[in-house]
Amino acid sequence: MDEPVLLTGAGGRVGQAILHGIGDDYEWRLLDREPLPAAKVPDRVTDADRYVADITDARAVREAMAGVGAVIHLAGDPRKTAPWDSVLRNNIDGTQVVMRAAADAGVEKFAFASSNHAVGGYETEDRTPDLYRTDDDYRLDGTELPRPGNLYGVSKATGEALGRFYHDQHGMSVVCVRIGNLTKDHPPREYERGQAMWLSHRDCAHLFDRCLQADYGYEIVYGISNNDRRYYSIKRAREALGYDPADNSANYTFEGEPKAGAETNEPETGESETADAVDDAPAEPNFPSDPDTPTDGA
Ligand SMILES: NC(=O)C1=CN([C@@H]2O[C@H](COP(=O)(O)OP(=O)(O)OC[C@H]3O[C@@H](n4cnc5c(N)ncnc54)[C@H](O)[C@@H]3O)[C@@H](O)[C@H]2O)C=CC1
Ligand SMILES: O=C1O[C@H](COP(=O)(O)O)[C@@H](O)[C@H](O)[C@H]1O
């Protein structure tokens, strides 16, 4: 794969998990609408490779895209309660701008941060909470139709469809990663659903590394760790990308503490400035809420 790799939304939680894991392995171009403090930027990235821009600004995105070999596209509104105005602008329009610029620039590989919320509607009343438990064998595997449970999920399903279009019409390799629930050092505490879809930081970095390295056409995969308790299959991620996750939420108690004797090998990342910065990331990031627009089904 040709470098550099453009990482949009580089300053956020997922972006920082990726940079903390594989920040030294690629030549990066980082784009975020917020300026990134030095602690969030790998040493080798020069000022010229840092873009403060909004992804809906087509001219700025085209400039950042020039000469890029691959894209990891994370920028957007990550809130499951996000109103339509925001997901329309940041997640749908923004994703189209980035994908179009990538296709026009001849980018080889494009990894899109989709979400579990693109298929949240499968978590019906009769399936839950059993679905979140080890002895339930129901699995979504990425071949099912999207079934969003909120407007944020609709925007992610739309991003997946845009990816299909840019693959079919322009030949760009596109992988849509339906990310589960990313948390650092331990699975979400006291949250069955979150523990079933946990994605550890190092598995996140490894998964997006595989998105940059593997050969594929168009794929939808689930981005979760190797959790015993899960309702998303990671078979396709293993087969198409060579994903080989290291972590498993079963090695932690319901409260998120490592179980005695279990291999809780998600390394403590507290020593890293970059990781500390991630930990401090706001749970509800920088998006104004708009009471006049619907947030159906949050
Ligand atoms: N954190 C998680 O567990 C999950 C995240 N995702 C997706 O992964 C992506 C990243 O999520 P997080 O890192 O958690 O979110 P975050 O809010 O921590 O990071 C998003 C970053 O994108 C930037 N950004 C937002 N809108 C932008 C725009 N219009 N132009 C330029 N930059 C913009 C923000 O400044 C921020 O640095 C999102 O697309 C989200 O929907 C999907 C599933 C789970
Ligand atoms: O798409 C996303 O999903 C995760 C997990 O969803 P939740 O319903 O369990 O909170 C969420 O944490 C993240 O912010 C969001 O972007």
Amino-to-carboxy terminus distance: 39 Å
Summarize the main sheet: 7 strands, parallel
Average pLDDT level = 91
CATH superfamily: NAD(P)-binding Rossmann-like Domain
Q: Look at the helices and sheets and give the structural class.
A: alpha/beta
- Low-pLDDT windows of residues: 269-283
Treating each run of at least 4 consecutive H or I residues as one helix, how many helices?
8
- Sheet with the most strands: spatial strand order: 3-2-1-4-5-6-9
Please tell me what the overall shape is: globular
Helical coverage, percent range? 25-40%
| Total count of domains | 1
Question: Could you please say which CATH topology applies here?
Answer: Rossmann fold
Instruction: Work out the number of β strands.
Output: 9
- Calculate Rg over CA atoms: 18 Å
Task: Tell me the name of the CATH class.
Answer: Alpha Beta
Measured by DSSP, the beta-strand proportion falls in 5-15%
Associated small molecules: 1,4-dihydronicotinamide adenine dinucleotide, the ligand O=C1O[C@H](COP(=O)(O)O)[C@@H](O)[C@H](O)[C@H]1O
- Topology pattern, helix = H, strand = E: EHEEHEHEHEEHEHEHH
CATH architecture: 3-Layer(aba) Sandwich
Structure write-up:
The protein is α/β, with parallel strands linked by helices. It has one domain (5-280): Rossmann fold, CATH 3.40.50. It contains eight helices and nine strands. The chain has helices at residues 13-22, 58-65, 84-104, 151-170, 192-196, 201-213, 235-241, 273-279, and strands at 5-8, 28-32, 50-52, 70-73, 109-115, 173-179, 181-182, 198-199, 218-223. The strands form two sheets. A seven-stranded parallel sheet has the order 3-2-1-4-5-6-9, with helices on both faces. α1 crosses α6 and α3 packs parallel to α4. The longest helix is centred in the first third of the chain and has 21 residues, at 84-104. The relative contact order is 0.16. The structure holds 1,4-dihydronicotinamide adenine dinucleotide and the ligand O=C1O[C@H](COP(=O)(O)O)[C@@H](O)[C@H](O)[C@H]1O. 1,4-dihydronicotinamide adenine dinucleotide binds at residues 9, 11-15, 32-34, 54-56, 74-76, 78, 90, 94, 113, 115, 179, 181-182, 281, 285-286. 1,4-dihydronicotinamide adenine dinucleotide binds next to α1, α3, β5 and β7. It catalyses: D-glucose 6-phosphate + NAD(+) = 6-phospho-D-glucono-1,5-lactone + NADH + H(+). Pfam families: Epimerase. Keywords: Carbohydrate metabolism, Glucose metabolism, NAD, Oxidoreductase. This is NAD-dependent glucose-6-phosphate dehydrogenase. One of its GO terms (biological process) is glucose metabolic process.
